[in-house]
Design a protein that fits this description.
alpha/beta; OB fold (Dihydrolipoamide Acetyltransferase, E2P); 20 helices; 3 domains; inorganic pyrophosphatase (n-terminal core); 21% strand; Diaminopimelate Epimerase, Chain A, domain 1; five-stranded parallel beta sheet
Length: 578
């Protein structure tokens, strides 16, 4: 085996009669019907909802418990000219959520200020610095976005000063530990807590990002004033994509409608960001969000102060937007340099360690706290283990963890809480703080949990193949069908197809170490390319027949449109009888 040899290839299969039924009923190809079934689409009604994610299909915002109470307090502040402070977070989800609240409330005539904590000076979440800013500004109401669900002391401290707090968040709340309790969670003593994860009846909205929750609050506030709410969709899409939440349900609608606005360039700040990122004004696709826009938005919060990112996202001045976008672009270059240095040091450290089957926990003085999360993500992907990367200063360590799908990082950390000074986040990503002396104990305990909960197979990456196809089924018409699944994202990834027993013809290296060839099956040959697969060329001389996992695509060249397979993995054919 090669490229994908270390993976388990899992082909999703469904009863063939059911696939044929859905394909026939909805006039779809069997391959596309199988892909849809894999995404939970099992009836023509569900099909319409998924393939037409229009604004009319958004959930009722009042499905969020406590939203009525939150809006009552917000309307009171607006009516009485009370100053409101929006307390955000420094990542892309946090700054877009802040911009949604600021722009929405100002559109209602609100006296709105905002505060974005500094990663190094203040740390994550709603705390003393935010309360001091609210007090200095004379605010009578604080609205948190993308934070606050575990800020018990800060909420109480604000209220003791006569400042009310409305918490809007999407992070995991603290469990009460009391099975007989009316609520399974401990919630801060705020005027209202708007968080779908805190209420079982809002489970269908539990995948919202912080920006998504902020958007639902504005959706409730503006009601039938759809024009104002519609203008916030680009911000909601950015936050939704940045926080890697499931691209289904309301999130899918926010992404699809928001990306239209991002493409049209209705917002000065996003126009400027697209320009510095080298994105053509007449072209946009979902992947550009992840690879070009979001890293730039995140750069300020990682290595500088993200306050001006909210200015960028809310300004109506083209010149101000251009200046701020250039600043962010420069920060992103610097962030990449810092990240590369820390990543290289972490890999060198790992080479000297025995990783074993458990978790990876790395720590060092001098590592920039703003990039340890990205480094943890790369290490978790490379070694397919839960990974935590920590920056140490003055005996205290803080950093970020990233997990693999079979392991719940937040749950694992909750069982190590006695050696931590703080933690919070999601199943796949979390922030953590602890005393330097407790790092070995955290490594031991987390590794023990991983080994207890996961099997050997769980620690092998999985290559999920949506449908097994014959080359005769792969066509431009199928590509057009698959395009209806956009926008892609977590939980709705680009579909990967698989085919067995393909004959390799004319393999060669092109460009920067890319592998180009034709793959033939039953007389049908299709052009194929594996980006950065050049090192596999010698293996193809030994294995003339391969299995391939691929994404069919259109290659536009020299005025023509050609079918091409974008190879995701190949291996020696395991089909019987060549």
């Amino acid at each position: 085996m090669y490229d994908g040899a270390a993976c388990r290839w899992l082909v999703n299969r469904t009863n063939s009669e059911y696939v044929e039924y859905l394909a026939r009923t909805a006039s779809l190809s069997p391959a596309f019907a199988q892909v849809l079934i894999n995404r939970g689409i099992k009836s023509p009604g569900q099909l319409d909802s998924f393939l037409d994610p229009s604004l009319s299909r958004l959930s009722d915002p009042f499905d969020l418990p406590s939203l009525w109470a939150a809006l009552e307090r917000i309307r009171h502040a607006l009516k009485n000219g009370e100053r409101i402070l929006i307390h955000g977070d420094y990542d892309a989800d946090g700054v877009t959520a802040t911009a949604i609240m600021v722009e929405g409330l100002r559109a209602r005539g609100g006296d709105v200020h905002y505060f974005i904590p500094d990663r190094l000076a203040h740390g994550y979440g709603f705390g003393t610095a935010g309360i001091e800013r609210a007090k200095a500004a004379g605010a009578g109401l604080i609205i948190t976005v993308d934070c606050g669900i575990t800020s018990f002391e800060a909420v109480s401290a604000a209220r003791s000063l006569g400042i009310d707090v409305v918490v809007t968040d999407h992070h995991e709340p603290v469990r009460s530990g009391e099975e007989a309790s009316p609520s399974p969670f401990l919630l801060p003593d705020a005027v209202a807590v708007v968080n779908p994860k805190a209420f079982p009846e809002a489970a269908h909205l539990s995948g919202l990002s912080g920006a998504g929750v902020a958007f639902k609050v504005m959706q409730g506030l503006f009601g039938n004033d759809l024009d104002t709410v519609h203008r916030l969709l680009d911000l909601a899409a950015l936050g939704t994509a940045a926080d890697v939440v499931p691209a289904v349900g309301d999130n899918r609608i926010l992404l699809k409608e928001g990306i239209r606005l991002i493409q049209s360039g209705q917002r000065a700040g996003i126009r400027a960001l697209k320009s510095v990122a080298g994105i053509r004004s007449d072209f946009f696709k979902t992947s550009l969000l992840y690879y070009l826009l979001i890293p730039r938005i995140n750069a300020a919060g990682r290595i500088a102060d993200a306050t001006d990112v909210v200015r960028l996202l809310t300004t109506q001045s083209d010149s101000e937007a251009e200046t701020l976008a250039e600043w962010l672009n420069g920060l992103n270059v610097r962030r990449q340099e810092i990240e590369e240095a820390v990543h290289n040091e972490a890999l060198t450290m790992l080479e000297r360690m025995e990783i074993g089957g458990g978790a990876i926990v790395l720590a060092s003085e001098g590592w920039h706290p703003g990039v340890v999360g990205i480094v943890a993500s790369k290490i978790a992907e490379k070694y397919y283990r839960p990974a935590i990367v920590l920056s140490v200063k003055d005996g205290a360590a803080k950093g970020s963890g990233r997990s693999i799908p079979p392991f719940d990082m937040h749950s694992g950390l909750s069982r190590c809480r006695d050696v931590l000074t703080r933690f919070g986040g999601h199943k796949q990503a979390a922030g953590v703080g602890l005393a330097e002396e407790n790092i070995p104990e955290l490594r031991r305990r987390l590794s023990s949990l991983v080994l207890q909960e996961l099997t050997a197979d769980d620690l092998i990456p999985v290559l999920n193949i949506d449908a097994a196809v014959m080359m005769s089924e792969v066509s431009i018409a199928l590509i057009d069908e698959l395009a209806r699944l956009e926008p892609f994202g977590y939980g709705n990834e680009e579909p990967v197809l698989g085919a067995r027993n393909l004959e390799v013809l004319q393999p060669r290296i092109v460009g920067n170490n890319h592998l180009k060839m034709h793959l033939r099956q039953n007389g049908r040959r299709v052009d194929s390319i594996g980006f950065s697969f050049g090192g596999l060329l010698p293996h193809l001389e030994e294995n003339r027949f391969v299995d391939a996992a691929f994404l069919p695509m259109i290659n536009e060249w020299d005025g023509g449109r050609y079918l091409q397979l974008n190879l995701k993995a190949i291996r020696p054919s395991q089909a019987n009888g060549r």
